Amino acid sequence: MYRVPFLGIATAVFGVTAFFILVLVMGHPYRYLAPDSFIYFTVARTAIDDGVLFSYSGVDHTTGVHPLYYGLLVILFPIFGVSLPAGSLLLGAVLLSGALVIFWRVFGTAPALFVGILFLTPWGMSFSNNGVESALLIFLLSILLLAFRVLDMHRELSRRLCTAGVVLGLISAARLDTIFFAISAGVVFAFQSLSLNLNGIRTSAARAALIIAGAAAILVPSVALYWVYGDSPVPISGALKSSFPVVQDDWAVTLLSLKTFILGILVSIVGYAASKVHAWERRLFLALTIGLALLWLYNGLFVSNIGVWYSALPFFAVIVFVAHLISKFIPSHAIPVVGLLAVLFGAPFITHLHLSIEREDWITPHQAAAAFLDGTIHNGAAAAELKDGEVAFFASTPVYSLTGLANNVAYVHAVQEGRLSEYLSERGIQYIVGGSYGSGVQVPGGEALFSSCTNPLYAEPLVQIYRVKDCL
């Protein structure tokens, strides 16, 4: 008879409750959100309010969002409306709580308890409350734990291999650059018992085909969406990187600055060395080591701005390593004592960490700027934003993006070919929203086009609004 996992349910309830207590006690919840999250929120709002999928303005399409997380926000927007940022916090808490239940199922109670504590640290909470795809990615990576464990017990079951491929496809669809890890995990799945003879090679090739088929069922539709809505097989951010690669001047220093990736690689190597030769944990740590090393090199060499959401995979490697160690070295009869000590010492420490972080209320100024735009723009005019959607999401009037991250390839070409004035005129854009908070123009040469804006109609420390004629 199936037993209801009361402990797992209690773990999930604890995770969600503890998360919201921390958010409410430590400060305004919106202060935790990443600027990029408002690109997601704006594109999700446009899908419901204007009926246009993958669009920031309701007119031009964009692939500036990853489709899996975007789809979840589209579902949530009718429920939360303009409170969608708060809805994203709840979604993040639920996803990480789901991941916590999986860790409890795979490793046991004590390891899950420590993982839960790590989830409540500033590093862990930066994934659950940043408003982007990080929590979803950690949840999907946790599901992959089950795949590694199940395939260790049922090595030749075709359906399970195909399911593992689907999970790898979902991980890549959640954030495309994790495809490096997905490929390494797929190779480990396919060749975990390779025999150097014809029959062994055929078996591994068949396993690889099943995994590829499962992954393709997710990735092919994702790539098709990028082509249809963005004229590129990758998100617009990837198209920008391929069109205008940003190779670091001092790549060695940049690689060393990615400390979380270095930490993830180190713990994966140690976990691999400490695991038994034929254990599923050993194969998981091998996949993590290879995938993290490839992603570390890619980000260090070609990505100019590394946000915290890039470090979801290193964080996952760390929590797997911690759970693995505790499951091996803490006996079951010591769990109550360990739990008590964790609560007594962990809660004050976590509280201190959160209170020591200075946070600025950057949402309220953008809401005020959106209200100013709504009262200023008339007769079908529109505005354009040099930010990441912080104003566009709260404004009722049409607001376009000028960063490049929420546009399409046509906009990138307009900037590069000197046709920006024509682009703005065609769309009736008469106002420019700028400020010190946000990504700015990511298209090379675009930032200089707006560096001479004068006579702001609206000026606050974080947000300024100009007429187009005072900028170009």
Structure description:
- The model has no long low-confidence stretch (mean pLDDT 79).
- A hairpin with a 4-residue loop joins strand 4 and strand 5.
- By secondary structure, the protein is mainly alpha-helical.
- The chain has 19 helices and 5 strands.
- Strands 2-1-3-5-4 form a 5-stranded mixed sheet.
- The protein starts with 5 loop residues before the first helix and ends in a 5-residue tail after the last strand.
- 62% of the residues lie in helices and 4% in strands.
Summarize the structure.
The protein is mostly helical. The chain is built from 19 helices and five strands. The chain has a five-stranded mixed beta sheet.
Helix content: 55-70%
Element order, helices and strands?
HHHHHHHHHHHHHHHHHEEHHEEE
Distance between the termini: 72 Å
Rg estimate, integer Å: 24 Å
- For the secondary structure, the number of strands is 5
